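Cross-posted from the bioinformatics board.
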Amino acid sequence: MTHLDVKHIQQSFGDQHVLDDIQFSVDEGEFVSILGPSGSGKSTLFRLIGGIETPTSGDIHLNGRSITGKPGSVSYTPQSPSLFPWRTVLENVLLGQEIQGEKDYDKALDMIERAGLASYEHAYPHELSGGMKQRASFIRSILSPQSLILLDEPFSALDEFTRIDMQQWLLSMWENHKRTIVFVTHNIEEAMFLSDRVIILSHRPATIQSTFDIPFSRPRHEDLLLSQDFLTLKKDIYHDMRQSHT
Amino acid sequence: MRNLIIQGWRPALVLIVLFAGWELSTVVFNIEKWFLPPPSDIITVGVTEWTDYNQHVFATLKLIVIGFVIGSASGVGIAIALHLVPFLRQSMYPLIILSQNIPIIVLAPLLVGWFGFGMFPKLIVITLVCFFPIAISLLSGFQQADRDLSHYMQMAGATKRQIFRKLEWPNALPSLFSGLKISATYSVMGAVISEWLGANNGLGVYMTLASSSFRPDRIFVAIFIIVAISLLFFLLIVWLEKRVIHWQTAEKRDSHDTP
């Protein structure tokens, strides 16, 4: 069932053409990555889906209803973990619910514990490591009432091994909670490892250059990253992206 | 406490040297007491005459506290109004800057002329000097809210009111306190100046009387008391800041640990 439907989005700022005829859809419970070079308009696309910007033309539907220019339908996690420094971990993860209405303390505490943040629920964000902050901000997304989660390069500031751990943790959370995730990244491996499908954006103005289905079975393990099939597919994607970059 | 000794001995030493030098030079250069009294004399006068002048101290303290409360409340109110209503911000901002260009010393006698020697004109003077640092720093604090956090709130469907209460207000608290610290010292000056220009009692009056009767020792007593009040007031705000903004003091402590 189609969850998110992005229809012929165009976006320009003045004479700067950023997005050109972007069209894709994401199914319920699907994990889709949008892969593109820096400055290709990925963040603009997120602001459009998030409803805090309106496209020059085109329409965005969620569950068949138009959400173009209407915020409140998605849960967004920006590049930085963006926890509120004056809130404890518990207060931070409950923020999404707080904005929309009811707060479920028990579920929040349970998730915090399962994310390995037990005994940190009353800690402030500056007391956490980078990976812990990302986990807290992802719990916030899962706890939010919105069923579509947008993740904007959440792991770009982490070191290699922490990143792989976080990716596996993210996958396990996603498998347990069955949310639809749209993930933005410029890292080919990350996109492949996590997603069911990878959408590749071209350079400015961004168009959808190609789409790759990622056939690897789930649950996925770290070993996949070094397997022959994985590397072959990575090569294909790499060449595809390289073409548009020159 | 140990921290206070470790960090405080340098300024304390400077003060002691300063006062010792002052005391010595009045003896060495044989300076007349009506010209420049030594610190020991000032302290003696301050202690022995306490019962004569303490009413002035309390009158001024009362004025400072009431004036500061009204002044900071208006500062906060103005900042919130200007932040939430863009039309107000565009139209009133220049007026607020302008209000600080009015020399208070010239304005005060006018206010006394209009409203008499009571508390009201003095409170206007204190409010006028107090609200400005608070309004300006709070306003910039509101506007410096993190962009990522603000995008998060907007996409989550937060209302303007929620964004203000959950993001912009807590984000501006450190700025509010830096405004409050400046205003705390300003309010003391404002109170003394307003009393100078017409009052029945208060440290400003006491100073005017001391100066017209050639009693520099009493003037210095008043100065020391004013300095002490300012300092205490400032420390009170710092203490409050530490209690309210617990997340930031901890952050500073962290950054000290890792050089």
